[in-house]
Amino acid sequence: MAKDNAPSSPSQQRMENIVSLAKRRGFVFPSSEIYGGLNGCWDYGPLGVELKRNVKDAWYESMVRHRDDIVPVDCAILMNRRVWQASGHEKCFTDPMVDCRECKRRFRADKVRMHYLVVDGKPVWHHAYEGDDPAGFDDISKSVRKSYDHLRNAHKADFDAGKATDLDCLVSQVPEGHARICPECGGELTEARLFNLMFKTFVGPAEDSAAMTYLRPETAQGIFVNFLSVLNSSRIKVPFGIAQIGKAFRNEITPRNFTFRTREFEQMEIEFFCKPGTDDQWYRHWVEVRKRWYLDLGMRPENVRFREHAPEELAHYARGCTDVEYKFPFGWGELEGIANRTDYDLRAHAEACGKDLSYFDDETKERFVPFVIEPSAGADRSTLAFLCDAYCEDEAPDEKGNPQPRTVLKFHPRLAPIKAAVFPLVRKDGMPEKAGAIYESLRKRMAAFYDDKGAVGRRYRRQDEAGTPFCITVDGQTMQDDTVTVRDRDAMTQQRVPAEGILRFLSDAMGL
RNA sequence: GCGGGUGUAGCUCAGUGGUAGAGCGUCACGUUGCCAACGUGAAUGUCGUGGGUUCAAGUCCCAUCACCCGCUCCA
């Protein structure tokens, strides 16, 4: 940072420190960095891969393996283009935008309207307002209304003669020669530009439009289009869910905030199919289940909130939606959306593909199109949230007893990339050999790490930065009675444990 | 996409047109028996990238890329 810049806030500094640690210790790197990187893309390094995999595994274990009403799928990222036409993505995932050249505000071109008085084909008066309904013009301010009425009266004869007229249209449909102005400041607006949020791609070597499709912008549609196949092949009955973890791609206008908003990201989604009428109850069930998941993995309750959308906030297909939000250093951000999508998706696909996607309940002899509850979580966002939540700067005494700053990642053991590190206290008297043997036995059962370089205090601190919950040290006493010390990451306390029982001890301590 | 800021060693950052720097980290050897120890030595740079001005550019100019902040957007 240049010295003439305003000092960054503590939370900004905290985020910078987290990003710096992530890169330094091999959690996350900028994508294709040696070529200058690529906007909105990040790579996971050795520790980051383990962390993110642990997040995904924790999700898969508790959402799929530990339940008898959820089955998994793993769909292709490339799907028939008609999927995206039926789901509405092709139409709705492209937003035309306009920018104000004066105040630099940006608007959706389908949310700004212009109203003109046109005389002899020339606009003599104009007004801009936000909204997508011409009726919005009725709500304009009194002073604007006055000038409008005044001019309209002045041109009354022209109106009567049909030479003058009112024109109200979206800013994206303004005719040639008519001003487009900012509804906020009155400045000149740019032409409407299309922002396509889906990545186009071509299936087959010839780039003709017939083979054009998109990288999927969400994994959910893969689940809906496999609804029949899963139903027919797995003997599962409603209510049940289909789960999927996979990559999705969105050409975000502004990737921002480290791995929070990226153009390529991984989702962990469930579509839970239930009978209409039971959807509210299942919706509440899933909000509870997902809440418990985050808290059980150690996320600090004060940093998580569950925000239920107001009715006017809901997407057109949704009957209810709760966002799981995390308090990142850069502000509250959405980790997951739990939505009641009604029967919107299955109906849309049934209509588009011509197949019956309804369900017949053998017990009640009823046929219905299931309602869908969708807990849709971001794997990268959750991983980032767990990383931010674990990040701590505290103090540890040095060898003289003076407090020194310490950086430690207090991961839940389940999420820690490395579960245990094994050290010889010094590199002599057979300690490296003994420690090496313990390491070899541990690594078959858990992610373990061996280090014999430098002072042991430094090795402890290194493991603190990686978030390793326990460090095992072989010392002189080990050679006497075959016990080792186990050092706790958070409390920095030690206890002696028989080397023989170290695996059992660690498993119990970590609840694994 | 707009505006502002920043890109120099693995990290954090100095660097005033004239030989590329510091601290930390890394590696080696020695010392070291429990929390970022000490000593000695070593490696590390197309100064984001590409052009231009100049006898001479990390430094000035243009372009471009990336990241950060604000706007905007966010199924």
Description:
This protein is an alpha+beta fold. The protein folds into three domains: 10-91 and 203-386, Bira Bifunctional Protein, Domain 2 (BirA Bifunctional Protein, domain 2, 2-Layer Sandwich); 94-195, no CATH class; 418-510, Anticodon-binding domain (Rossmann fold), CATH 3.40.50. The protein is built from 15 helices and 26 strands. A seven-stranded mixed sheet has the order 3-12-13-19-16-15-14. Helix 2 packs across helix 11. The longest helix is centred in the first third of the chain and has 20 residues, at 46-65. The protein is elongated and about 110 Å long. It starts with 9 loop residues before the first helix and ends with a helix. The chain binds one RNA strand of 75 nucleotides through helix 1, strand 4, strand 5, strand 16 and strand 21.
Q: Which CATH class of the largest domain is shown?
A: Alpha Beta
Gyration radius (Cα, Å) is 30 Å
The CATH architecture designation of the largest domain is 2-Layer Sandwich
Number of helices: 15
Kindly report the CATH topology of the largest domain.
Answer: BirA Bifunctional Protein, domain 2
Strand order of the largest sheet: 3-12-13-19-16-15-14
Q: Can you summarize the main beta sheet?
A: 7 strands, mixed
**Shape assignment:** elongated
Relevant CATH superfamily of the largest domain: Bira Bifunctional Protein, Domain 2
Which secondary structure elements does this structure contain, and how are they paired or packed?
Blueprint: H1 10-24, E1 28-30, E2 42-44, H2 46-65, E3 70-72, H3 81-86, H4 89-92, E4 94-99, E5 106-108, E6 112-119, E7 122-130, H5 142-154, H6 156-160, E8 164-170, E9 193-196, E10 200-202, E11 212-214, H7 220-225, H8 227-234, E12 240-249, E13 264-274, H9 279-296, E14 304-308, E15 320-328, E16 331-342, H10 344-353, E17 359-361, E18 366-368, E19 371-378, H11 379-390, E20 391-397, E21 403-409, E22 420-424, H12 431-443, E23 448-450, H13 456-466, E24 470-474, H14 476-481, E25 483-488, E26 494-498, H15 502-510
Parallel strand pairs: 3-12, 22-23, 22-24
Antiparallel strand pairs: 1-2, 4-5, 4-9, 6-7, 6-8, 10-11, 12-13, 13-19, 14-15, 15-16, 16-19, 17-18, 20-21, 24-25, 25-26
The protein binds one RNA strand of 75 nucleotides through helix 1, strand 4, strand 5, strand 16 and strand 21.
